[in-house]
């Protein structure tokens, strides 16, 4: 038994694979994009859709009130938060945008972030700069990879940003950034702190209280193994006590109590909207429950062991260059290949029944320009993957590259 499989028994892995029907006919190494949903998640979603078809959408939501409440509880447990501090959203970008929109930015305010933050976040920062005159200050990377903590602390101390925003696991470099250390800096100086946990939730332990963040945005579809079109947002007590709310609340987020007066919801519901695909909320809860039952520490250990093994395998292939760089590396592996377009590799691998994903320069302009590449093939194992899956990927890449 190799190191990659020691944290799970073969019987356990076989059981998780049997509960993942898609693995019967493909190797799935695209969990950083969208994982394969296990049967209990699919059942939760389909069951509610069928109920809506039978009795009506509003009526089905009323019937499933308790199940919906449990979905909040299980999701909150996954990130170490009380259920009433979790808002359900359509996706991680909706969560992130709602959090950003609640900050009362003024011209000249500073938003501090990192060079490795997710592309959509970087675009939203630049939109804030263009529309409101917010200054975007990126802390440089440390030599070992990831944000330079000393530089970030100096920015927070000297520039007093209105908000610090950090992506815990960037999409492009394999690294895990030290968001806990940044959180301690923000708490010490009473600075609001937003963490993008899109890639970390479901892959590794998350404790938003220990992290010291005011917002934590996440999706269901990645390592959490939930559905697409669903996400959530953690909101701290400090945010609620300060009266922060999204720019455009609706009738779920607030009550209209007089002609010219509304009252925000007292909890994280103020970051929600009225119309939901409740089937996907139930699927999110089922995915969180599934991860909690397995044990998130065990999930982290196996996924990282497999990804470490994969980096070693790729490094031995002529023409391959592993691009990951950081003191702590997660389960996402990125690599470039001589004279190969990543998107073409994805198509060739998919033709062989192997799922991966690709990126181009515009997905991580700063990082890829520094590395001198136009993009990368992204491969992301999870706990249900096996050494046989890595064998299949390695063999397919060698065949594509060298015939």
Gist?
With about 400 residues, this protein is α/β, with parallel strands linked by helices. The protein has two domains: about 5-30 and about 295-400, Aspartate Aminotransferase, domain 1 (Alpha-Beta Complex); about 40-295, Type I PLP-dependent aspartate aminotransferase-like (Major domain) (Aspartate Aminotransferase, domain 2), CATH 3.40.640.10. Helix content is about 45%, strand content about 15%.
Description of the structure:
By secondary structure, this protein is α/β, with parallel strands linked by helices. The chain folds into two domains: 3-30 and 295-402, Aspartate Aminotransferase, domain 1; 42-293, Type I PLP-dependent aspartate aminotransferase-like (Major domain) (Aspartate Aminotransferase, domain 2). The protein has 15 helices and 15 strands. It starts with 9 loop residues before the first helix and ends with a helix.
Characteristics of this structure?
403 residues; alpha/beta; Aspartate Aminotransferase, domain 1; Aspartate Aminotransferase, domain 2; 7-stranded mixed β-sheet; 4-stranded antiparallel β-sheet; 15 strands; 43% helix; globular
Low-confidence segments, given as residue ranges, are 1-5
Based on helices, strands and strand pairing, what is the structural class?
alpha/beta
Q: Could you give a short account of the major beta sheet?
A: 7 strands, mixed
Mean pLDDT: 96
General shape: globular
Strand order of the largest sheet: 2-8-7-6-5-3-4
Order of helices and strands: HEHHHEHEHEHEHEHEEHEEHHEEHEEHEH
Number of strands: 15
Topology (SSEs and partners):
Blueprint lengths: L9 H9 L8 E2 L10 H17 L1 H7 L1 H15 L6 E4 L2 H10 L8 E5 L4 H14 L2 E5 L9 H11 L3 E5 L11 H10 L3 E5 L11 H4 L3 E5 L11 E5 L1 H5 L12 E5 L2 E4 L13 H17 L1 H20 L4 E3 L10 E5 L4 H10 L2 E2 L1 E4 L4 H7 L3 E5 L7 H16 L1
Helix pairs in contact: 2-3, 2-11, 4-11, 7-8
């Amino acid at each position: 038994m190799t190191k990659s499989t020691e944290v799970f028994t073969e019987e356990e892995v076989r059981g998780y694979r049997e509960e993942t029907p898609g693995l019967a006919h493909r190797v799935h190494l695209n969990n950083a994009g969208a994982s394969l949903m296990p049967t209990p998640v699919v059942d939760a979603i389909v069951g509610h859709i069928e109920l809506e078809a039978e009795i009506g959408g509003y009526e089905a939501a009323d019937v499933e009130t308790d199940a919906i409440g449990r979905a909040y509880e299980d999701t909150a447990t996954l990130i170490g938060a009380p259920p009433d501090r979790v808002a359900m959203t359509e996706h991680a970008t909706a969560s992130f945008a709602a959090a950003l929109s609640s900050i009362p930015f003024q011209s000249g305010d500073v938003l501090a972030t990192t060079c490795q933050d997710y592309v959509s976040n970087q675009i939203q920062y630049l939109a804030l700069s263009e529309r409101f005159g917010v200054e975007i200050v990126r802390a440089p990377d440390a030599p070992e990879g990831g944000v330079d903590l000393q530089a970030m602390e100096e920015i927070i101390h000297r520039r007093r940003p209105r908000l610090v925003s950090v992506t815990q696991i960037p999409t492009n470099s394999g690294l895990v950034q030290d968001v806990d250390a940044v959180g301690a800096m923000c708490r010490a100086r009473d600075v609001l702190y937003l963490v993008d946990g899109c890639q970390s939730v479901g892959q590794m332990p998350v404790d938003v209280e220990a992290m010291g963040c005011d917002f934590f945005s996440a999706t269901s579809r990645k390592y959490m193994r939930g559905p697409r079109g669903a996400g959530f947002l953690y909101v701290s007590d400090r945010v609620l006590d300060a009266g922060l709310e999204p720019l455009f609340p609706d009738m779920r987020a607030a009550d209209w109590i007089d002609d010219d007066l509304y009252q925000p919801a007292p909890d994280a519901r103020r970051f929600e909207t009225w119309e939901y695909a409740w089937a996907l909320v139930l699927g999110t809860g089922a995915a969180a429950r599934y991860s909690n039952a397995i044990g998130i520490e065990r999930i982290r250990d196996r996924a990282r062991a497999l990804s470490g093994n994969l980096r070693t395998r790729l490094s031995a292939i002529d023409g391959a260059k592993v691009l990951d760089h950081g003191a702590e590396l997660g389960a996402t592996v990125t690599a470039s290949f001589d004279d190969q377009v990543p998107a073409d590799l994805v198509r060739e691998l998919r033709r062989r029944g192997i799922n991966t994903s690709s990126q181009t320069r515009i997905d991580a302009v700063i990082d890829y320009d520094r590395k001198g590449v136009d993009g990368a093939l992204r491969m992301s194992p999870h706990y249900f993957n096996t050494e046989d899956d890595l064998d299949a990927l390695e063999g397919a890449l060698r065949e594509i590259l060298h015939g």
